[in-house]
């Protein structure tokens, strides 16, 4: 720094530190000292949820943060900290970041990667972070655009209680105790359904028996903020019963957090809301552009692209028109005012006139077209089109060795060890007429793919002899591409000959509300929309996705933009979605009513092979040489089922036939000599090991292992003490084969104590 610039700064005469930095540090100390929750002295409280007790504590850990809380269930503990900046940066949304991390130490493990440290977030961590974010974001006050970060740190996991629901409650407590403006708290529970009974916060063992795995986040007055879950074709009435019971249990958690907040919570900081639209400019834009906007939104000949372009042209005209009238106003502020008018007009047309911008009624679906067997060489393929949302799904069948094996922490905090069915969702930029880097896998792609996978997993047969990879590539997107992936994926699975139990479909339900003038949180009027468009999702208040079969529900995800929805509206949305889902399945069944009875000509084949235990070593080869040769030459993969049974996977029938010929050659080999139990044979030492010898009894037999304990009556530590050398001949007695692994059992020490009556020599004469 130059001397003139240094002289401009006010420095402390004692230490030379800039006074601005000293002032900043004093403010930090002042905030720390005046923070009531930091004086809580490790206050904790217990709340009964279902049959278990949830412990919430604060005031001991991470006290430099704006708010922190620890929630424990059983021996699983989660710490969540909340920090929000006091200065805002220009933004049109809340920059909220939720980082959920599963430390390996919490489960008593060491990371299995090369450097043995936690690296990037796993799929499980990303999905849990999304669930937490969706549970909290709707309750931040309007106009609060200050950068906020929540870090969820898994302290301990017992392998019985999952930490995701605990993280939501800990985040709710941390925000409530902090001075960060937030209209919480919320409470969250996991709901299971076992033997016709609702189970709150089931353990992992109970979840394995449950037909439902649903996370419910609720706010006060029994409102629903977020839903996320999967089910095994649960019936409608059982599902609604589970939601009602779950919302009821969340109220206990909310009341306990409110009690903590009253005792130790900080006063919420004052903030300057983001500058809203100028009322004068908004009224001016409305008077000039409202009629043109209505014409565009009521012109049902428009599609997504033409409608967006027409609205954009009006926006451009408004910017030019008001540039002279309001020369001191930035163009982006005029654009914001215009967007506000468009949103008001759009919502008014739906609420007052029941009109949607594409001409459909509130419960009507867009036109649906389905086709399968798109490309002959693929194992399975389907194209699903709903309006201007188009999804191409492909199925690949591979060996069981291709199953996705999860990392140890994901196993501890989930219910799967490996996945033989996986769905990968892709959203290239051209799907929305944009440019960008293709092939990226972001949080959105992972979230949408996981939801579609949940919707299809219950129809996949158990113990299927292949690993299934289903890819869903969105070619056009105008809303609800994840639910289109469920429909297209179901068709592609049936086209591939996967014996699914029945077809599955999904649909998105939207909501437009009007609040009471006296109470903004009270809904005065609302309309529920079936089969959501992209613009309806953007300008509406809810994106409620539901997937299932004709029989029941398999997956659900509700993104609610309000501070909570009454149960009445949630029930109506579920009933409307179930009706639409059944209609879609009826259309899909006209394309392909059931799975193909036989796989395609280009499809893979698999067979089970039984190898006698005695021939197992010859089949595998020394060091697995035969199996490697089999894979390299034919592309066939062999998976071990048990000691004598193997599964053979071949990419096609020709490869399978070639592999069978090679296996016959492996097993044909020259005839093995028939050894007589109790007989004495002369063999040749082929290898000397630390713990024994390898003895060749016959050229057509694999060398047999002779342990040190069977070499001599005396106890020896190494064969060299007896003077053995490679190539030396020794006599051993044969005791048959081990019934468990088929290995030959021989002994030398018995020859020194028991007279022999049978003397034979199988070694070839020189």
Automatic annotation (TrEMBL):
GO terms for cellular component: cytosol; mitochondrion. Keywords: Cytoplasm, Nucleotidyltransferase, RNA-binding, Transferase. PROSITE patterns: KH_TYPE_1, S1. SUPFAM superfamilies: Eukaryotic type KH-domain (KH-domain type I) (SSF54791), Nucleic acid-binding proteins (SSF50249), Polynucleotide phosphorylase/guanosine pentaphosphate synthase (PNPase/GPSI), domain 3 (SSF46915), Ribonuclease PH domain 2-like (SSF55666), Ribosomal protein S5 domain 2-like (SSF54211). Residues 678-749 form the S1 motif domain. One of its GO terms (molecular function) is polyribonucleotide nucleotidyltransferase activity. GO terms for biological process: mitochondrial mRNA catabolic process; mitochondrial RNA 3'-end processing. The keyword RNA-binding applies. It comes from the Eukaryota. Its EC number is 2.7.7.8. PANTHER family: POLYRIBONUCLEOTIDE NUCLEOTIDYLTRANSFERASE (PTHR11252), POLYRIBONUCLEOTIDE NUCLEOTIDYLTRANSFERASE 1, MITOCHONDRIAL (PTHR11252:SF0). Belongs to the polyribonucleotide nucleotidyltransferase family. This is polyribonucleotide nucleotidyltransferase. It comes from Patella caerulea (Rayed Mediterranean limpet).
């Amino acid at each position: 720094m130059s001397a003139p610039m240094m002289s401009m700064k006010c420095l402390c005469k004692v230490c030379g530190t800039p006074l601005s930095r000293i002032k900043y540090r004093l403010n930090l100390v002042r905030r720390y000292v005046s923070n009531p929750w930091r004086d809580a002295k490790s206050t904790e409280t217990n709340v009964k949820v279902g049959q278990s007790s949830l412990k919430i504590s604060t005031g001991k850990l991470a006290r430099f943060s704006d708010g922190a809380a620890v929630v424990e269930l059983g021996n699983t503990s989660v710490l969540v900290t909340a920090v929000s900046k006091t200065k805002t940066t220009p933004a049109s949304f809340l920059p909220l970041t939720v980082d959920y991390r599963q430390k390996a130490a919490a489960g008593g493990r060491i990371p299995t990667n090369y450097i043995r440290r936690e690296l990037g977030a796993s799929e499980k961590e990303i999905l849990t972070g999304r669930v937490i974010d969706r549970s909290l974001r709707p309750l931040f006050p309007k106009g609060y655009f200050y950068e906020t970060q929540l870090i969820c740190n898994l302290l301990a996991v017992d392998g019985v209680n999952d930490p995701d629901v605990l993280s939501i409650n800990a985040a709710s407590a941390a925000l409530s105790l902090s001075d960060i403006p937030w209209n919480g708290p919320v409470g969250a529970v996991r709901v299971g359904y076992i033997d016709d009974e609702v189970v709150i916060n089931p353990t992992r063992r109970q979840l394995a028996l449950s037909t439902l795995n649903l996370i419910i986040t609720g706010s006060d007055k029994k409102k629903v903020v977020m839903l996320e879950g999967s089910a095994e074709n649960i019936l409608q009435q059982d599902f609604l019963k589970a939601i009602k019971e779950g919302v009821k249990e969340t109220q206990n958690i909310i009341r306990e957090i409110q009690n903590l907040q009253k005792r130790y919570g900080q006063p919420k900081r004052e903030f300057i809301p983001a500058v809203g639209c100028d009322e004068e400019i908004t009224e001016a834009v409305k008077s000039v552009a409202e009629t043109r906007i209505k014409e565009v939104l009521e012109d049902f000949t428009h599609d997504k692209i033409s409608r967006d372009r027409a609205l954009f042209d009006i926006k451009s005209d408004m910017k030019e028109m008001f540039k002279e009238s309001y020369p001191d106003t930035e163009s982006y502020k005029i654009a914001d005012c215009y967007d506000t008018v468009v949103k008001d007009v759009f919502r008014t047309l739906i609420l007052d006139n029941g009109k949607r911008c594409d001409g459909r009624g509130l419960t009507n679906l867009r036109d649906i077209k389905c086709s399968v067997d798109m490309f002959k060489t693929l194992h399975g393929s389907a194209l699903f089109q709903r309006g201007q949302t188009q999804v191409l799904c492909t199925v690949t069948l591979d060996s069981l060795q291709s199953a996705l094996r999860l990392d140890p922490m994901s196993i501890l905090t989930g219910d799967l060890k490996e996945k033989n069915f996986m769905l990968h969702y892709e959203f290239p930029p051209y799907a929305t007429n944009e440019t960008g880097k293709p092939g990226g896998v972001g949080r959105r792609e992972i979230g949408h793919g996981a939801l579609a996978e949940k919707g299809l997993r219950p129809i996949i047969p158990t113990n299927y002899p292949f690993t299934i990879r289903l890819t869903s590539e969105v070619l056009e997107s105008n809303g609800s591409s994840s639910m289109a992936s469920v429909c297209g994926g179901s068709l592609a699975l049936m086209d591939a000959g996967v014996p699914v139990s029945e077809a599955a479909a999904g649909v998105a339900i939207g909501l437009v509300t009007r609040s009471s003038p006296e109470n903004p949180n009270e809904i005065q009027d609302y309309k529920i929309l079936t089969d959501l468009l992209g613009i309806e999702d953007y300008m509406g208040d809810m994106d409620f996705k539901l997937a299932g079969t004709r029989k029941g529900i398999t997956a659900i995800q509700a993104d609610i933009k309000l501070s909570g929805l009454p149960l009445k509206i949630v029930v109506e949305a579920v009933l409307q979605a179930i009706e639409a889902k059944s209609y879609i399945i009826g259309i899909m069944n006209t394309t392909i009513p059931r799975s193909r009875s036989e796989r395609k000509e280009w499809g893979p084949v698999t067979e089970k092979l039984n190898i006698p235990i005695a021939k197992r070593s010859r089949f595998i080869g020394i060091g697995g040489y035969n199996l490697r040769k089999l894979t390299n030459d034919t592309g066939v993969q062999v998976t071990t089922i048990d000691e004598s049974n193997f599964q053979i996977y071949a990419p096609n029938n020709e490869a399978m036939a070639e592999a069978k010929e090679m296996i016959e050659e492996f097993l044909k080999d020259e005839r093995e000599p028939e050894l007589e139990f109790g007989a004495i044979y002369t063999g040749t030492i082929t290898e000397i090991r630390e713990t024994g010898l390898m003895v060749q009894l016959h050229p057509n037999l694999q060398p047999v292992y002779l342990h040190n304990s069977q070499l001599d009556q005396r106890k020896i530590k190494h064969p060299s003490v007896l003077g053995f050398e490679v190539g030396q001949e020794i006599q051993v007695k044969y005791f048959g084969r081990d019934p468990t692994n088929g290995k030959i059992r021989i002994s030398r020490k018995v020859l020194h104590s028991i007279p022999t009556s049978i003397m034979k020599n199988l070694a070839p004469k020189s």
